[in-house]
């Protein structure tokens, strides 16, 4: 894969009503919809954007961000369930405060990769595995330039995959990608270097 652009979805209703995200279908807020237009307009200035294949998580807040942005870009959009946010299990549909009060403490000698802080939820390793597997498949299919709309927690996995970080690196690694931000990665052909060109860029949202 030559390049990847990662967009965590824009402001969702759950960002402003105190509810948890995870595998829920909260829609974008009105601000979030305007932010998605800004994302599309910013990406439209990319010199090679027409060469990108666009994919999105199937969860509503990511799907809406992608639909608004790719309409401006005039790109076809494909949906991938594998690109969802982390599953928060029994906290789904609950408030952030409920989530905080019911977080399960880690067991002795339990790694961050395998720790599940909520009953029925996913571990970091499980999120990594499903996202890496789908990206491996797209890479094998010959996708050279990938534009992906996803979620804040999941975004780290896309960056790590492109940089060829092994799963064990995600024991501690995390990349800060605010809502509606643009992260761009490129493969410098001839040098064999995978470059994090820009991380969590929000200048287009101002």
Automatic annotation (TrEMBL):
Enzyme Commission designation: 5.4.2.12
Keyword annotations: Isomerase
Signal peptide bounds: none
Pfam family, one: His_Phos_1
InterPro entries the UniProt entry points to: His_Pase_superF_clade-1, His_PPase_superfam, PGM_Phosphatase
Top-level taxon in the UniProt lineage: Bacteria
CDD domains per the UniProt record, alphabetical: HP_PGM_like
GO molecular function: phosphoglycerate mutase activity
PANTHER family per UniProt: BROAD-SPECIFICITY PHOSPHATASE YOR283W-RELATED, HISTIDINE PHOSPHATASE FAMILY PROTEIN-RELATED
Record-given protein name: Phosphoglycerate mutase
Species assigned in the record: Paenibacillus eucommiae
Lineage of source species: Bacteria, Bacillati, Bacillota, Bacilli, Bacillales
């Amino acid at each position: 894969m030559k390049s990847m652009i990662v967009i965590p979805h824009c402001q969702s209703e759950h960002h402003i009503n105190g509810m948890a995200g995870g595998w829920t279908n909260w829609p974008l807020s009105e601000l979030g919809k305007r932010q998605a237009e800004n994302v599309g307009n910013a990406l439209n200035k990319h010199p090679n954007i027409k060469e990108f294949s666009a994919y999105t998580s199937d969860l509503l807040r990511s799907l809406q961000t992608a639909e608004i942005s790719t309409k401006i870009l005039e790109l076809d959009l494909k949906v991938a369930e594998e690109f969802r946010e982390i599953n928060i299990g029994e906290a789904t549909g609950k408030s952030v405060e409920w989530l905080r009060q019911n977080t399960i403490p880690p067991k002795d000698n339990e790694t961050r990769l395998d720790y599940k802080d909520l009953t029925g939820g996913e571990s970091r390793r499980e999120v990594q595995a499903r996202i890496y597997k789908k990206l491996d498949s797209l890479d094998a299919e010959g996708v050279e330039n990938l534009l992906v709309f996803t979620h804040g927690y999941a975004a780290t996995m896309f960056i790590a995959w492109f940089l060829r970080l092994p799963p064990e690196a995600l024991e501690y690694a995390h990349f800060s990608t605010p809502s509606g931000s643009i992260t761009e990665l490129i493969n410098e052909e001839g040098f064999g270097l995978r470059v994090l060109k820009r991380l969590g860029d929000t200048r287009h949202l101002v």
